[in-house]
Every structure is written in C-alpha cells, then in structure tokens.
C-alpha cells in the first residue's frame, strides 16, 4: 500500500497575481538544492486518519504558525514519482511569515560518523507568484498549482472575479 501524505497550499491574491506559500526542506541533503526542491507543507498519515486534519497539523508543525481562517478548496490527490499519494487542500488567506519556525528532526550526520544532529524539517518558507513557484516546487506537486488556478474567481482561471 502506498504511503499517504496530506498538505495545505496557502494562497493569496495581490494586484491580480496569485502567490502561494511553499516550504524548503531542511537538512543536509536539501541544503544546496533550490529549484525543484520546495514543497507544500505536508506530512504522512494513516489510512484511517482525516487528511484535512493532517494537512492542518503539518502546516502548523512545519511553519510554526496557525492555519489562517479562510475558504478551503480540495485539490485532490496525486501519486508522486516515489509512489506516495499526496492529498492537498488550498486555503485562501494571508500570513506574516516573519516568525515562521519549523519543528526539527534528528539524524546521523555526517553519515557514518556516529554523531546525531538536529535539523529543522523546513529551513525556510516563502511567498511566490505561481509562475515562480512552478519552478521551485517538486515536479510531482506542480499539478496542485494548476488545480488551484482552475478555481473560479482566481486570476488565470478564465473566470476571474471582477
């Protein structure tokens, strides 16, 4: 059975441009990677768990800030190249990320050294226009941007709000 993950894509519209909040993974493997390395804040859940509750919990853990109140949109599920199935939700809202702080994880580093080090799960977050986020996001998550922009009332949806 495939691993399941749920995430939250926070978005805002400013001057007719849709911005999304995405996260760069922490730890030594991702330290020098940028384009194609960012992700929506997300985490794994068991088949019996509620994906929406997981998405909210993971957002709070990885960003260190509560999920803003705002309308929620189901963006569906996508099988990633790894085989993991990611379910995403979009929430319209703005968030000051000045005080964003991620939870941490421990791992042996350098590998084989016997030294355990602590790293942030997310080392930075940022607001990006969708066009820029498309190059930053992991390839398997880019479809969520398309699904977001297909929502009525968003710039680029073909059904822009007045």
**First-to-last CA distance:** 45 Å
How many strands in all? 8
Radius of gyration from the CA trace? Answer: 16 Å
Helical fraction equals 10-25%
Written overview of the protein:
The protein is an alpha+beta fold. It has 3 helices and 8 strands. Strands 1, 2, 3, 4, 5 and 8 form a 6-stranded mixed β-sheet that branches. It is globular, with a radius of gyration of 16 Å.
Give a topology summary:
Blueprint (H helix, E strand, L loop, with lengths): L3 E11 L2 E9 L16 E4 L5 H13 L8 E8 L5 E8 L11 E5 L7 E5 L1 E8 H7 L5 H8 L13
Parallel strand pairs: 1-5
Antiparallel strand pairs: 1-2, 1-3, 2-8, 4-5, 6-7
Main features:
36% strand, alpha+beta, 8 strands, two-stranded antiparallel sheet, six-stranded mixed β-sheet, globular, 162 residues
At a glance:
The chain is built from three helices and eight strands, in the order βββαβββββαα.
